[in-house]
Amino acid sequence: MTTGPLEGVRILDFTWAWAGPHATLLLSFLGAEVIKVESHHRLDHTRLRSLMTGPTMTSPDHSVIFHDLNVGKLSLTLNLSQPKAVEIAKRVAQISDVVTENMRPGVMERLGLSYDDLKTVKPDIIMLSSSAVGATGPERAYAGYAPTFAAMSGLAHITGHADGPPMPLSGAVDLRVGTTSAFAILAALYYRARTGKGQHIDLSSTEAASALIGHTFMDYSMNSRVQTRMGNHDHMMAPHNSYRCLGEDKRVTIAVASQEEWDALRRVVGDSRLDDERFADASSRWQNQEALDPLIGEWTASHSQEEITQALQKVGVAAMPLLDGRALVRDAHLRERGILEPMQCPLIGERLTLSPPWRFSRTPAQIRRPGPLLGEHNQYVLGELLGMSSDEIERLVAEEVLY
Amino acid sequence: MAETALDGVRVIEYCQMISGPYCGKLLADLGAEVIKVEEPPAGDAARARGPFPSDVPHPEKSGLFLYLNTNKLGVTLNLSTASGRQVFQRLAEQADVLIEDRPPGEMAKLGLDYASLSAINPRLIVTSITPFGQTGPYRDYKSYHLNLYHASGHSSFFYVAPQERREESLVVAGGEVGDYDGGLAAAVATLAALFARLATGQGQHIDISKFEALLALERVAVALFANMPDPPPWPGMVGGLMPCRDGYVVVTPVQSHQWQALMELMGNPAWAQDEKCHDELTRAQHRDKIQPLLEEWSAQHDKEDLYHKGQALGVPIGPVRTVAEITHWPQARQRGFFAHLDHPQAGRLEYPTAAYRMSETPWRVERTAPLLGEHNEQVYCGRLGYSREQLARMAADGTI
Predict the structure, then answer these.
(1) Does residue A245 register a pLDDT over 90?
(2) Does A370 contact chain B (CB < 8 Å)?
(3) Which whole number is the average pLDDT over A194-206?
(4) pLDDT, average across residues A314-330
(5) Catalytic pick among A44, A61, A97, A174
(6) A276 is catalytic
(7) How many angstroms separate the CA atoms of A88 and A91, rounded?
(8) Mean local confidence (pLDDT), A265-270
(9) Residue B311: its chain A contacts at CB < 8 A?
(10) pLDDT of residue A110
(11) Are B9 and B28 in contact (CB under 8 A)?
(12) Do A171 and B220 touch (CB under 8 A)?
């Protein structure tokens, strides 16, 4: 196996749910060894039967949701309500480079696993604490999930139809938070490699989502303007919409920025009504898009997604089908790019999972193993890494320290 | 001044609009020296896209450009001239990273692709950001945020109840967030390659597809469809978006203690004792009965009031907020999420900073976004050793 860019980096991972695990998932793709601390005492709720896993799931090791968010990681079951488990966690921290956690601010302190605690056993440790609104400030104890991050970041308010409600988006917001966390950890790793200094990173999930729509805040600062929902329209471009095509529930998006693109679109559509003065330049097209959209829609309605996409792309106009889950997994481009990878899971069976999102020419990112069973790597971590004897480990199991 | 995380890292950014510049900004804000290369005479297309103060277009006053280009040096360079390409090579020779967002094949035509540049600088990392990546049938397709967002399935994974109102969900996310996602994915990969280079001493090429960067954020949904050709429709959680007297809140009472806390917030209504409310699965099954009861209640309250009272009881709840409300939010202000920066042309404005507080290497501002060609002399004379006369000639002959 070739080496990933983070070969040799070890991460002790106390995160759960979606955002934190996505951060360490990305780092594991990059070659880091991620040891996920879990416990029957307090299961990652993505391992529990839920709406997402469906009602028929039989055990915490059968959750496909957990699997897809935790491929490549190792699992160590530590019951942190026991002081001995906390001691073991510290010993693993001592041989790790990074510690990650997304418990409510204050919980790691109570457990004796705060940054200050871990710094005493590993002076150059890097620790990421990810929370809903940050580890400082009057609301630091507040909790949240992807939909509340979308709501409180400003993203939901500007997503939706002009005459409809805001859209809190989906779990993707959590994964955005996780990607932001991975970036901050990598910066800290780079800094540590050159200076020998670790540090603590306090990340606010809500701020992470706000940073990804930063320019909308600039509009407020400049003009006191509160941008609001505008469906599929744009502030400058027109046409800029999703249009129905031939076939049931099929749509294509078309966006035009320049005069060249407009002229090319007009030639392909071949409707003389588009030569109207109302559509002559970008600003008049934008002013008159209510009249323009139905004309484009008339044309798209009689063609397939593929016909429209190919005809317009050929002349340099941005057009793409609107794809859903079914279409995506069959998409020719994604297949050729090899975005799905089969994993052999001991209990779930063969499962396709999404490949890492970047292509490195020299140090490829890869998925090293399927998602771990609960405690699957207790022996490796305690025996091989910490050098404990089988007797000691068995005793810890009996005492429900390893649980 | 505190040390920075990426002190001494030299980056050339040859990108426009959002994805590439956001990647460059993330690195620049943590201390990398990012030289932004813009094509004269107009420069980055973001300069022509607002928001502008009072909506008057001005190339130095675009809010989009100002936000995405903090801490960078700016030079102009015309790569359609042979001398421009030569200057670019010299910049790349001294750089650790090149971020570029030209359509696949274009840098090769200029003789400035990874293969050519690594021959003169084997330590160089080249990060290429394109809509669909460097390979595959769509590689030459053009795509704006609208197209990519809908193509990557994101709008199809929005849940709007009831199913008959699904049409509502087919909207692009606001704020071009999907373009930022491409830049963030690229920044993660770029840092990973820089870290690897500490050990190997070798650069490499990174191929970032914005399409796949977006797809990666829906990995749970994509895997669901990949393994089950026809998964049952998502029934929708009870709670979610709920109307208030003055807007909306979002509630995610998924686990039982969270549901209990919500019921407490509602004053423990009698209907909550019903078997239908037993767990997340039964509640979802009877969503059409339970949801109206929740909404009827929430509509009588104010969003901030529900937020603070709910959070005090342990309900994961958040108000849908506008940029105005967030800008004045005490939590964000106390954490220093906003910074006032003075720009010579656009004036004093308030910028969002970053979501991470790094104890040793804090986010900081050394300079606001560069004026077009602001650092030509500093970079071309100071760094590359051209004389003032040569610089004047390069300006006159259209090289810069």
Answers:
(1) yes
(2) no
(3) 98
(4) 96
(5) A174
(6) no
(7) 5
(8) 98
(9) 139, 141-143
(10) 97
(11) no
(12) yes
**A125 touches B at CB < 8 Å:** no
Q: What is the ipTM of this complex?
A: 0.98
Give the strand pairing for A340-345 and A74-77: unpaired
The pLDDT assigned to A56 comes to 86
Cβ contact A139–B248 (<8 Å): no
Summarize pLDDT for A337-376 with one digit per residue, the tens.
999 999 999 999 999 999 999 999 999 999 999 999 999 9
Give the model's pLDDT for residue B1.
47
Q: What angle do CA B183, A158, B349 make, to 5 degrees?
A: 70
The residue with tokens 């920066």 is B341
Task: Please report, for residues A25, A71, A92, A190, B208, the alpha-carbon distance to residue B205 in angstroms, rounded to integers and kept in the order given.
Answer: 22, 25, 35, 19, 10
Whether B108 has a pLDDT exceeding 50, the answer reads: yes
Has residue B166 got a pLDDT over 80?
no
- My answer on whether omega of the bond before B41 falls inside 30° of 0, hence cis, is yes
pLDDT in tens, B209-261: 999 999 999 999 999 999 998 888 777 789 999 999 999 999 999 889 999 99
Tell whether the model's pLDDT for residue A1 goes beyond 60.
no
Q: How far apart are the first and last CA of chain A?
A: 32
Residue B59, chain A, CB below 8 Å: the answer is: no
For the CA atoms of A12, A17, A19, A23, the dihedral, rounded to the nearest 10 degrees, stands at 30
What per-residue confidence (pLDDT) applies to B162? 66
- Considering CB atoms only, which of A45, A229, A318 is closest to B142? A318
DSSP letter at A337 equals T
- Within 8 A by CB and 6+ apart from B95, the residues are B10, B11, B12, B35, B121, B124
Contacts of A282 in chain B (CB under 8 A): none
Do B350 and A221 count as a contact with CB atoms less than 8 A apart?
Answer: yes
B364: pLDDT strictly greater than 60: yes
pLDDT above 70 covers what percent of chain A?
Answer: 100
Which chain A positions have a beta carbon within 8 Å of B350's beta carbon?
217, 221
Q: Report the pLDDT value the prediction gives residue A104, as an integer from 0 to 100.
A: 87
**Residues B192, A318: C-beta atoms closer than 8 Å:** no
| Residue B26, both tokens | 């993330």
Q: Is A362 on the interface with B (CB under 8 A)?
A: yes
- Cα B197 to Cα B174: distance, rounded to the nearest angstrom: 37
Does A124 contact chain B (CB < 8 Å)? Answer: no
User: How far from A361 is each of A3, B125, B196, CA to CA, in Å?
Assistant: 12, 10, 12
CA atoms within 13 A on the CB side of B226: 26
**Interatomic CA distance for residues B207 and B125, integer angstroms:** 11
> ∠ CA A378-A380-A385 to the nearest 5 degrees?
110
B188 to chain A, any CB pair closer than 8 A? The answer is: yes
Q: List CB contacts (< 8 A) between B244 and chain A.
A: none
Percent of chain B beyond pLDDT 70? 98
CA distance B186 to B67: 18
| CA atoms A154, A156, A162, A165: torsion sign | negative
Q: Is the pLDDT of residue B192 over 50?
A: yes
Measured in Å, how far apart are chain B's first and last C-alpha atoms?
33
C-alpha A133: how far from chain center: 18
Between positions 270 and 299 of A, the ones with CB within 8 A of B are none
Mean pLDDT for chain B overall = 95
